[in-house]
């Protein structure tokens, strides 16, 4: 057994009661985020790919510029790769992201016969997760984000913010990857709480429970957090 797996065995994960308590504290502080209408899964996928390892502002700007230059995904697929790279430059890693986006589009067109992922709306969540993760550069978090936001599925994506808070709350082992934490946490979070808890944890991670110098004195869930109680 590897050291990481051994450490993970000592963390039992949250109880439903502790999840509800943290959720309630975040809702009191930030409100319950409204659930959006179903969206376009392909738009959501490309937007989420652009959001990896950059700020929200940069990824939104890159997506808007991509859509401005290429009004359809077919146009984006057929464009010179350098033009796609230039369009998304503000998000960073454009020379990796540009070819990857075109590879994703080419694969979807090959698989679906057209550039759409609308079939995901009617696909079983487990099958949809498997398919999305078969696409270039798409991991569990990105796949779950597409299902959560575009398809309104009750899944629980774990990004770096959610993973950091989960470790500090004692819900996950120190050093566990976001992918591993997502695998373990999703079954433990009540389905009805997965969307609001995901959204509020991300906001909490950006504003309060930051990677460096967390603002524990301002934390509304401090009583549930071993890290916060030590401050």
At a glance:
The protein is mainly alpha-helical and 231 residues long. It has helices at 3-9, 16-30, 41-51, 56-69, 73-78, 81-87, 94-112, 125-133, 140-150, 160-169, 178-185, 194-207, 226-230.
Q: How many domains, in number, for the residues?
A: 2
CATH fold description of the largest domain:
Endonuclease III, domain 1
Q: How much strand?
A: under 5%
Largest sheet: none
Mean pLDDT: 94
Quickly count the helices: 13
| Percent helix range | 55-70%
Please state the second-level CATH architecture of the largest domain: Orthogonal Bundle
Spatial gap, N to C terminus: 34 Å
What is the string of helix and strand elements?
Answer: HHHHHHHHHHHHH
Please compute the radius of gyration using only Cα atoms.
Answer: 19 Å
Q: Please tell me what the overall shape is.
A: globular
**Number of DSSP E strands:** 0
Protein structure class:
mainly alpha
What characteristics describe this protein?
231 residues, mainly alpha, Endonuclease Iii, domain 2, Endonuclease III, domain 1
Write a structural description.
With 231 residues, the protein is mostly helical. The chain has two domains: 11-34 and 157-230, Endonuclease Iii, domain 2 (Orthogonal Bundle), CATH 1.10.1670.10; 41-150, Hypothetical protein, domain 2 (Endonuclease III, domain 1). Helix content is 59%, strand content 0%. The protein is built from 13 helices and no strands. The protein has helices at residues 3-9, 16-30, 41-51, 56-69, 73-78, 81-87, 94-112, 125-133, 140-150, 160-169, 178-185, 194-207, 226-230. The longest helix is centred in the middle third of the chain and has 19 residues, at 94-112. The protein is globular. The mean pLDDT is 94.
């Amino acid at each position: 057994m590897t050291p990481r797996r051994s450490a993970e065995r000592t963390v039992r994960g949250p109880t439903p009661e502790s999840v509800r308590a943290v959720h309630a504290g975040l809702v009191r502080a930030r409100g319950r985020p409204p659930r959006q209408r179903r969206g376009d899964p392909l738009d959501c996928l490309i937007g989420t790919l652009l959001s990896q390892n950059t700020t929200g502002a940069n990824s939104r700007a890159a997506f808007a510029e991509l859509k401005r230059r290429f009004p359809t995904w077919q146009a984006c697929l057929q464009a010179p790769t350098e033009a796609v790279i230039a369009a998304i430059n503000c998000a960073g890693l454009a020379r990796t992201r540009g070819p990857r986006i075109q590879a994703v589009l080419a694969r979807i067109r090959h698989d679906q016969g057209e550039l759409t992922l609308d079939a995901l709306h009617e696909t079983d969540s487990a099958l949809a997760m498997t398919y999305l993760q078969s696409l270039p550069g798409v991991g569990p978090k990105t796949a779950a984000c597409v299902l959560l936001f575009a398809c309104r599925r009750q899944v629980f994506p774990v990004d770096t913010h959610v993973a950091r808070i989960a470790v500090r709350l004692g819900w996950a082992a120190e050093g566990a990857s976001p992918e591993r934490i997502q695998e373990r946490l999703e079954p433990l979070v009540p389905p009805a709480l997965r969307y609001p808890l995901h959204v509020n944890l991300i906001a909490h991670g950006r504003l309060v429970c930051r990677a460096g110098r967390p603002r524990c004195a301002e934390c509304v869930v401090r009583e549930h957090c071993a890290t916060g109680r030590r401050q």
